[in-house]
Write a structure and sequence with these properties.
With 132 residues, the protein is an alpha/beta fold. It is built from 1 helix and 12 strands. The longest helix is centred in the N-terminal third of the chain and has 20 residues. The relative contact order is 0.20.
Length: 132
């Protein structure tokens, strides 16, 4: 019994490390895309954000006083790319994990923000991501 518990713990640890490595071998998140609000509308400095094969996820940050709703980032990929997108940190960040990388394509997406003081959604912004 004394050997079973340490062996079991070692197996669980090894499995969790393997799962993380399998999820993102040599991958990193793309540098965050900062969302601001200008004249009551969302704004990103990168009208066309670049992503490369090594990027495992794209991440956006909401400005103070705003948050992303559940569909805060909505891609129009026409079935070419599968993304797992969701808000985190109570809507202060929005993360889209890539399930595959499609080189040489450009994807339009919508940015949606909610004003935390009023609960109202701002008009959508529709920039692009360029996949290189």
């Amino acid at each position: 019994m004394k050997r079973i518990v340490p062996t079991l713990l070692l197996c669980v640890l090894a499995a969790s490390v393997s799962a993380v490595q399998a999820q993102a071998p040599n991958g990193i998140d793309r540098p965050r895309i900062e969302v601001t609000v200008v004249d009551g509308k969302p704004f990103v400095a990168e009208e066309e954000a670049i992503t490369i094969a090594r990027h495992v996820a794209l991440v956006w940050t909401a400005p103070p006083g705003y948050r992303f709703p559940k569909d805060g980032i909505d891609f129009e990929t026409k079935g070419k790319v599968k993304l797992n997108c969701f808000p985190t940190r109570k809507g202060k960040l929005f993360r889209c994990e890539k399930r595959a990388h499609v080189r040489g394509d450009r994807f339009k997406y919508d940015v949606k923000l909610v004003d935390e003081a009023t609960g109202r959604e701002l008009p959508k912004l529709d920039p692009y991501v360029n996949s290189q």
